[in-house]
Specification:
This is Methionine gamma-lyase. With 453 residues, the protein is α/β, with parallel strands linked by helices. The protein is 35% helix and 14% strand. The strands form 3 sheets. The protein has a 7-stranded mixed beta sheet, sandwiched between helices.
Length: 453
């Protein structure tokens, strides 16, 4: 018999052992489910964020106070026992230790749950902490993952090298656009997770989230989607995904000054990850600092505005670069293989993403282009990462995808000269485009720069 409790914006269930595959025998913590996670009108993430539980400062300040404490006191010794049995928890403002839950981090988690339209979320110290914790929670020794062949290099290395060596968890990589290949890669009884990026790093391939989710669910497999490239633009959980992970360090932060991540999903999953005996988040301890959580919570309200401008400029630059004869990859262009797919899945009004790629075919030409864009015209900065207010550029094959060997890069469709650009929004659009043109004019070997087809 399930016992249901409600307090403020929270609701949760305490169930007997065996009632749910994700829930531990004694759920020490309530879920993070909040009114903010309810479906917003027209599925607009901005509307969901606007309805999130509002925290005010200790003395009535419009901004919440930061709770930097590592540990928390109780008035009576008996209270601590009740907290450790799960009878009392964060839903009633009872906190034990900030590796478990911290009030400031909890507030940010509510915002992430609202953003992605999930019941719950848990914010971590990095995006890789979020990804690795989820995979370790969902897969046991001998488990199997089916994953896109085109992934961020760190994720690919985790799946290719680290998890097989340390946990006996193996992965089959497939072309995520080939649904038959996905089906054929699933091993009945062993495959636990289908993992892919909503828009792939760095090739900008768009995954058919509804179809892939249906395919996986028919086989009893959990769908985990990395939505780092497209917050606000896509809502994978509303499209069928079970778990959404983020590197908050990127667009959500926007400042290139913090490292952070998030796991967004069902309350039962988050509860299981916080279990005292079996929880990956609880036991591995990828804890977010409360001061970082406060800073991030202040940036999320204008994420929608920032994403719209990132996407607007990326679209405009992609059109103009293509007109110059450059080999441009951008999902907003009609010649992109998944343009119509993305258009059908995207939240209206947010565009097609803030990243574009220019394929220079060779690393030497890619490096020369980036040199002029940074050092001759100040169009952008040669740096990894993305989502910054300045344009950031990198040659993916020799940087963020360098963990892949030559064969793996070929399978992923990563050209040696692929320049990934995260388009910023500083200055005016015409000013920055003029800087781009100046760099192009400095390129000496124009015959190899442009697409003559």
């Amino acid at each position: 018999m399930a016992e249901t409790h409600n307090a403020g914006y929270f609701s949760w269930e305490k169930k007997a052992a065996g009632d749910d595959v994700f829930l531990a025998e004694k759920s020490m913590f309530p879920t993070l489910a909040a009114a903010a996670a309810q479906p917003a009108r027209d599925n607009d993430p901005a509307a969901a964020l606007a309805s999130v539980r509002r925290e005010l400062g200790e003395h009535g300040g419009v901004n919440m106070s930061i709770e930097p404490s590592a540990t928390f006191t109780v008035m009576e010794p008996e209270t601590m026992r009740r907290m450790f049995t799960g009878e009392l928890g964060p839903d009633r403002d009872f906190f034990i230790y900030s590796r478990h839950f911290n009030p400031t981090v909890l507030n940010l988690s509510r915002q992430l749950a609202a953003l992605e339209g999930t019941e719950a979320a848990y914010c971590t110290a990095s995006g890789m902490a979020a990804i690795s914790s989820v995979l370790l929670q969902l897969c046991s020794s001998g488990g199997h993952v089916v994953a896109s062949a085109t992934l961020y290099g760190g994720t690919h290395a985790l799946l290719t090298h680290f998890l097989p060596r340390t946990c006996n968890i193996t992965t089959t990589f497939v072309d995520i656009t080939d649904h038959e290949a996905v089906k054929n890669a699933i091993v009945q009884g062993r495959t636990k997770v289908l993992f892919f990026e909503s828009i792939s790093n760095p090739t900008l391939t768009v995954a058919d989230i509804p179809e892939l989710s249906k395919l996986a669910h028919d086989k009893g497999i959990t769908v985990v989607v990395d939505n780092t490239f497209s917050p606000m633009v896509l809502s994978p959980a509303r499209l069928g995904a079970d778990v959404v992970v983020h590197s908050i360090s990127k667009f959500i932060s926007g400042g290139a000054d913090v490292i952070a991540g998030a796991v967004c999903g069902a309350a039962r999953l988050v509860n299981s990850m916080m279990d005292l005996h079996q929880g990956a988040l609880m036991l591995l301890g990828p804890t977010m600092n409360a001061k970082v959580a406060f800073e991030l919570s202040e940036r999320i309200p204008h994420l929608g505005l920032r994403m719209k401008e990132h996407c607007r400029r990326a679209m405009e630059y992609a059109i103009r670069m293509k007109e110059l004869g450059l080999r441009v990859v951008y999902p907003g262009l009609e010649d992109h293989p998944q343009h119509e797919l993305l258009n059908s899945m995207a939240n209206k009004g947010y565009g097609f993403g803030g990243l574009l790629c220019v394929d220079m075919e060779s690393e030497e030409r890619a490096n020369r282009l980036m040199h002029h864009l940074q050092n001759s015209s100040q169009f952008g900065l040669i740096a990894v990462s993305l989502g910054y207010y300045e344009t950031l550029m990198s040659c993916s094959g020799s940087s963020t995808s360098s963990e892949l060997n030559a064969k793996e890069k070929a399978l992923a469709g990563i050209s040696p000269g692929l320049v990934r650009m995260s388009i910023g929004y500083t200055g005016t659009l015409e000013q920055k485009w003029s800087q781009f043109g100046k760099a192009i004019s400095r390129m000496r070997d124009s015959s190899t720069l442009f697409n003559k087809n």
